[in-house]
């Protein structure tokens, strides 16, 4: 999850699972307008990091407008999905019945349906997002291929079997063991779980990520152990930390450009953006220092 223009600090208390699920859903409902402002317009809106091939340089605030930076961010966010498709052999594994778990505003769901002909169930625990995703899918002519399901990821209805589940920077919100146990019931034998996520490499990195996004970063080993207990095997692991570092530079640049160019911002808006700026910079520093890593994992149900 990568909405870096959002000030609202997620609650710090440790909650029981039912309360926590509702709270996270409300957290994302409340920031929809900010997501659209930074990553829109639709119909394909992504809020995750972008992928930057080594030859590409991020835009800077002093030489680009907020709109130009936003377009570049969107382009590279879709680039991340194209890279994921290559890593996961989407033409083979993500062209059937797919669960997009933690679908956000549906950008990934639409991508898998549009590019690979997938029949996608877009899973969200933010009720207000469901009609937005449905509307975007219809706008793309994919109303029959993309349908939304409002539920807790750990309580997916056993209505499959599905061929694959995808989680793009959303699995950090799930109870891993329960999630994999549930997926083992809804995927067919040989089905795949494809995860793109920010993984922990040292405690300070976890603090930076968790405090801003109200999530629980974990190690790749944590994922592998939870998956193995549910009957999955980790079969692919690809690191893309260096190729995603420029996202934080462009996200920082967008925030600076808005602060410099938009005289209509209220005092509250400016404060929000300045706090966002500090969060961007801290996350970029953790990326560079190796405190967090961005990886693509694929698990197969045995």
UniProtKB/TrEMBL annotation:
What are the Methyltransferase domain coordinates in residue numbering? 98-191
Q: What is this protein called?
A: Methyltransferase domain-containing protein
What are the leading ranks of the lineage? Bacteria, Bacillati, Actinomycetota, Actinomycetes, Pseudonocardiales
Q: From what superkingdom does this record's organism come?
A: Bacteria
Q: Which Pfam families match?
A: Methyltransf_25
């Amino acid at each position: 999850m990568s909405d870096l223009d959002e000030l609202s600090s997620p609650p710090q208390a440790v909650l029981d699972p039912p309360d926590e699920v509702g709270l996270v859903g409300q957290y994302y409902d409340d920031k929809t307008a900010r997501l659209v402002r930074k990553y829109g317009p639709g119909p394909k809106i992504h809020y995750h990091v972008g992928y930057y091939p080594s030859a590409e340089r991020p835009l800077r605030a002093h030489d680009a407008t907020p709109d130009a930076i936003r377009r570049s961010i969107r382009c590279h966010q879709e680039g991340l999905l194209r890279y994921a498709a290559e890593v996961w052999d989407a033409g083979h594994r993500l062209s059937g019945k797919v669960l997009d778990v933690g679908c956000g505003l549906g950008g990934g769901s639409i991508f898998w349906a549009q590019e690979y002909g997938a029949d996608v169930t877009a899973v969200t625990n933010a009720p207000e997002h469901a009609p937005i995703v449905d509307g975007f899918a219809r706008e793309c002519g994919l109303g029959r291929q993309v349908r939304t399901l409002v539920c807790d990821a750990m309580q997916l209805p056993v209505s499959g079997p599905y061929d694959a589940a995808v989680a793009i920077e959303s699995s950090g919100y799930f109870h891993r063991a329960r999630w994999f146990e549930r997926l083992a019931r809804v995927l067919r034998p040989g089905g795949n779980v494809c995860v793109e996520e920010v993984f922990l490499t040292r405690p300070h990195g976890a603090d930076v990520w968790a405090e801003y996004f109200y999530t629980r970063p974990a190690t790749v080993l944590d994922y592998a152990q939870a998956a193995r207990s549910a009957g999955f095997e980790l079969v692919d692991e690809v690191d893309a930390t260096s190729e995603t570092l420029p996202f934080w530079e462009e996200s920082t640049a967008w925030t600076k450009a808005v602060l410099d160019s938009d005289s209509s911002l209220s005092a509250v808006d400016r404060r929000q953006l300045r706090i966002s700026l500090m969060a961007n910079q801290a996350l970029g520093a953790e990326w560079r220092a190796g405190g967090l890593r961005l990886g693509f994992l694929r698990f197969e149900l045995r």
